[in-house]
Sequence to fold (212 residues):
Amino acid sequence: ATHGRQILIVAYGNPDSLAIPQWLLSIKNIIYIALGGEQQYTHWGEKVCDPGYPEPLDFSCTGTYGVLTGTIGSTHALELMPTASRSFHRLDIDVSNCSNPEEAAGEIAKALSDYEADRDLFELRLKGIRPRSEWDMSQLQSMLKAQYVSVRDETDTYYDFKALEAEHSRGVLGKYITAVKGAGYDEKIIRSALTLGVDALLSGRVPNGDGR
Fold:
């Protein structure tokens, strides 16, 4: 390192896992430390980078994926060149105007028409008010033609649980609502349980036995 040699270090890991000391980075003969193992492009300093994976692997992989190109040495000029053959997209789909899963599938197909639906990865978050008909997520997903789709149901219900609880206080429906609300779980879990249960009771999938 004292006779004009230029040193390039290639290693798997990050500065913490490899315990790279700060003083090492200040040595002029070390022109670059090429690291690997990170999911995405990570830049720890002018001399220390990891290009990340060349392709997104799953639904958690967002952003640009590629390889680092450029020059190192007396001058540093590196940039991330995209190489991924497919991309990840996270989309919000409003299904408020849909009356059934078929219409929701049509709304999703319309949103995906701007992308390479047979190639790319999609995480779809369904928003808005869900249809009043039976809302079966597995049925909905089976209608989608895109190959790599994850669907998250974040829709809200049109039910007024307080009014239903009062109106059906003596029946199974009212008692179910009261029991779930008093279960002490997280509000999101309670709302999901209320929606699923009320859907089942009002659709007749579960006998209501309502004596009000």
User: Anything to note?
Assistant: Residues 165 and 174 are 4 Å apart (CA to CA). The helical segments are 22-25, 101-112, 137-143, 161-167, 172-181, 187-203. DSSP finds six helices and nine strands in the chain.
